[in-house]
Amino acid sequence: MQAKGKKILIVDDDNRNIFALSAVLKAKGHVCLSAPGVSEAVDIIRSDSGIGIILLDMMMPDMDGYEAIPRIRVMEEGHDLPIIAVTAQAMKGDRERCLEAGANDYIAKPVNIDALEKILSLYIG
Prior knowledge:
Helix content: 40-55%
Number of helices: 5
Strand content: 15-25%
Strand order of the largest sheet: 2-1-3-4-5
Structural class: alpha/beta
CATH class: Alpha Beta
CATH topology: Rossmann fold
Distance between the termini: 11 Å
Order of helices and strands: EHEHEHEHEH
CATH superfamily: Response regulator
């Protein structure tokens, strides 16, 4: 079952994370796109109106998620797009920092697929 026809954009500089997350989400009926960095993600967001949600790694070499979220938010196509911060940093205050940066929600790595599915259902059905 595809989530209301909306695609999930996975933004992560580690191909292993993209592969693992895509495989599980595709097995659950989701359509996934991926980008190895923020610049590529911005290009995809601009060119594909079917993006329903972004799973954004917060620690990437070209631009971290705290810089990326405001950049996406100023785009017409990204202004209202749900962004889920995905981070290995699960320390106290990290969730709040992600939300303050403009993320809609937060999930820690390693990603718990059941928890992720609940988040996805909130935003894309």
